[in-house]
Amino acid sequence: MRSRERPSTEVFGEAWERLFEPPVAHRGLWTPDGAPENSLAAFQAACAHGYGIELDVQLTADGEAVVFHDDRLERMTGREGRLRDHTAAELGALALKGTDETIPTLADTLTLIGHRAMVFIELKTPFGDVGPLEKRVSDILVDHNGPTAVIGFNPYSHAWFADHHPQILRGLDSYGWNDDSARKLAPEMRKSLAALEQVELARPDFLALGLDMLPSPRADLYRAKGMPVIAWTIRSPDQWEGVRDHCDNLIFEGFHA
């Protein structure tokens, strides 16, 4: 059975169809000397070119979901400190990379995008935690009529959505788990994550796998059973050519897919 023909189409509607195409712009269609990553301008550019959008979401000190990747503010704003120690209003006043763009809320982002693009919302929930961010994101998605999916590395987050909002499309993120951050985890946990042993707990509808995991015999097996695989982050046409036979779509940056 081809992945696209999985019965979940009836549950997820257009979101399921747009999981397969078009390609997905990583943190929007941003450039080093133009629209910053995870900015409204980058999302507008992705919509204008007909791409899907991947973005990152975190919770502020006052419980709002905002679009930002890093734990700390320095790289994107030049300000010291952790994002979670600031309110949404404070963050909304910070310039991104010296531009007129600021840190947007998820609600404002989805209002801008509307129905123009499929949005993959990566929840930056620490591994094992679950609760406030998932609840806030689900409340926002209830009022959004465009196609969306939640993605992330935390299987407990996916399990929460499976139990509370099964109508929201879910994609489990994974990669090789061999970087400095992953080495802080116990070796057994790293091995389990790299082997996709968390799928049963997470109960995802698709997999979003790092390029360092592809091709993967385990992923090929899931895909043969009807679970699509999205590759990230693809940074050149040659990279995509090397894995496309094992994937159903790509999250890209640095070129136009």
In short:
This is Glycerophosphoryl diester phosphodiesterase. This protein has 257 residues and is α/β, with parallel strands linked by helices.
Please tell me about this protein's structure.
Pfam families: GDPD. Residues 21-257 form the GP-PDE domain. It comes from Caulobacter vibrioides OR37. GO terms for molecular function: phosphoric diester hydrolase activity. This is Glycerophosphoryl diester phosphodiesterase. There is one protein chain. The chain has 2 domains: 1-14 and 118-232, TIM Barrel, CATH 3.20.20; 23-116, Alpha-Beta Barrel (TIM Barrel). The chain is built from 12 helices and 9 strands. The relative contact order is 0.14. The protein is of the alpha/beta class. The chain has helices at residues 9-12, 14-17, 40-48, 74-77, 88-91, 106-113, 132-142, 155-164, 187-194, 199-202, 217-224, 237-243, and strands at 24-26, 52-59, 65-67, 119-123, 148-152, 169-174, 206-210, 229-234, 249-252. The model has no long low-confidence stretch (mean pLDDT 94). The radius of gyration is 17 Å and the shape is globular. Helix 12 (237-243) links the parallel strand 8 (229-234) and strand 9 (249-252). Strands 1-2-4-5-6-7-8-9 form an 8-stranded parallel barrel, surrounded by 5 helices.
